């Protein structure tokens, strides 16, 4: 008696086909068994097909990955708002300077390098330059001298160049720069309403 054992291994387990080609024992008797070769082949093919399905699943399952880069650039931009200087009435006989303040509020992109400059008068005085403006208000053909400064001591002129302007680094919020104005005392001027206008420039 010969016993042939065929084992088909799949990813889902294993399939055991035991085939007694000649005979098997049953209740102490020898029984002859004839196997249908076609059915045997179908059984083996089914087992192999089941195993190959499991192998296919294992081969093609998985992941692939990469990175998506996201970029942009942030440039500096600014806006400004001006609060004008309004002096009290000027008395030429009063023995002190007539002082007042205004301001420039700038809002620029955080970290931007900014320079605030103030221009010369509409009709500047003799010898006026961008670095050392000679400013004056006018009333018809009459003039009244005044100055614009960067600090309360009135010693640093607020000029119209990079070297005489106010340099700062933008905070990203509202940066307020005070402009200190002063009309010198004891000027000989005529009665009238005096006005002037200066350009305000942010360079960034």
Structural class: mainly beta
Work out the count of structural domains: 2
Low-pLDDT regions: 1-33
State the share of residues found in helices, binned by percent: 10-25%
CATH superfamily of the largest domain: Fimbrial-type adhesion domain
How many helices? The count is 1
Mean pLDDT, nearest integer? 82
Radius of gyration: 49 Å
CATH architecture of the largest domain: Sandwich
CATH topology of the largest domain: Immunoglobulin-like
CATH class of the largest domain: Mainly Beta
What's the order of the H and E elements?
Answer: EEEEHEEEEEEEE
Q: Which term fits the overall shape?
A: rod-shaped
Question: What is the end-to-end distance?
Answer: 102 Å
Strand portion, in percent?
Answer: 35-45%
Strands of the widest sheet, in order across it, are 5-6-11-9-8
Number of strands: 12
| Main beta sheet | 5 strands, antiparallel
Protein architecture, described:
The protein has 204 residues and is mostly beta strands. 12% of the residues lie in helices and 38% in strands. The chain is built from 1 helix and 12 strands. A hairpin with a 2-residue loop joins strand 8 (135-139) and strand 9 (142-149). The longest helix has 24 residues, at 37-60.
Task: Provide a quick synopsis of the model.
The protein is built from 1 helix and 12 strands; from the N terminus they run ββββαββββββββ. It has 204 residues and is mainly beta.
List keywords for this structure.
single chain, 204 residues, mainly beta, Immunoglobulin-like
């Amino acid at each position: 008696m010969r016993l042939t054992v065929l084992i088909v291994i799949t990813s889902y387990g294993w399939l055991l086909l035991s085939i007694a080609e000649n005979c098997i024992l049953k209740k102490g008797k020898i029984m002859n068994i004839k196997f249908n070769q076609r059915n045997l082949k179908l059984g083996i093919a089914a087992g192999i097909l089941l195993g190959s399905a499991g192998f296919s699943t294992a081969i093609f399952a998985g992941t692939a990955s990469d990175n998506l880069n996201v970029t942009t650039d942030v440039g500096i931009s600014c806006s400004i708002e001006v609060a004008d200087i309004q002096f009290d009435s000027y008395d030429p006989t009063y023995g002190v300077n007539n002082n007042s303040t205004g301001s420039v509020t700038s809002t620029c992109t955080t970290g931007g390098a900014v320079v605030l400059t103030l221009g010369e008068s509409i009709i500047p005085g003799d010898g006026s330059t961008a670095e050392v403006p000679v400013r004056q208000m006018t009333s018809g053909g009459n003039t009244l001298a005044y100055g614009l400064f960067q600090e309360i001591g009135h010693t640093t002129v607020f000029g119209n160049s990079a070297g005489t302007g106010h340099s700062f680094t933008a905070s990203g919020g509202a940066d307020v720069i005070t402009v200190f104005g002063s009309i010198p005392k004891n000027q000989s001027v005529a009665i009238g309403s005096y006005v002037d206008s200066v350009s305000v420039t942010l360079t960034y």
